[in-house]
Amino acid sequence: FVKCFRALCCKGPPPARPEYDLVCIGLTGSGKTSLLSKLCSESPDNVVSTTGFSIKAVPFQNAILNIKELGGADNIRKYWSRYYQGSQGVIFVLDSASSEDDLETARNELHSALQHPQLCTLPFLILANHQDKPAARSVQEVKKYFELEPLARGKRWILQPCSLDDMEALKDSFSQLINLLEEKDHEAVRM
């Protein structure tokens, strides 16, 4: 009886979930703060644009993501690279319903990030946000416009549509990113 009791009740704490440090970038208004707030079960209603950066620990069933969100304003973007060190993955949020000019700027910023020495080997989750807006471009349009196939060949990246209305799809996107992070972890162990 005692052995049985110990086996059932005294196993100790559950194994710790792995933690990953991620950087989240994208232009102002792309929806970074709102998406992260919603993932943390906070109300996105009172969200203000991030100036500088903020950090959120986003718990998932199989991992904890420590996400450093960097503000997307013109005067802040030039400092993004100072915050890349130590990142294990990248979340790039773009407004799929934005103007041509903003989309061009987002494309240039994504290209810079994909080629940055501290990020180029990391998994990327690219979220085409605001899919609920009438002017939203499809994932195929975004993929083509951002030239992801040739640019990101050989890299690990996921391009997913999202909106605040579809949290299941957003959580699924993050699960896919966690899978890429776990794969990268296992590769590091094998080396």
TrEMBL record:
UniProt keywords, alphabetically: GTP-binding, Magnesium, Metal-binding, Nucleotide-binding
The organism named in the record is Equus caballus (Horse)
The organism's place on the tree of life at top rank: Eukaryota
Ligand binding (Mg(2+)): T33, T50
SUPFAM superfamilies recorded: P-loop containing nucleoside triphosphate hydrolases (SSF52540)
- Name the residues that bind GTP: G26, L27, T28, G29, S30, G31, K32, T33, G72, N129, H130, Q131, D132
Protein's name in the database = ADP-ribosylation factor-like protein 15
User: Of which family is this protein a member?
Assistant: Belongs to the small GTPase superfamily. Arf family.
Alphabetical list of PANTHER family matching this protein: ADP-RIBOSYLATION FACTOR-LIKE PROTEIN 15
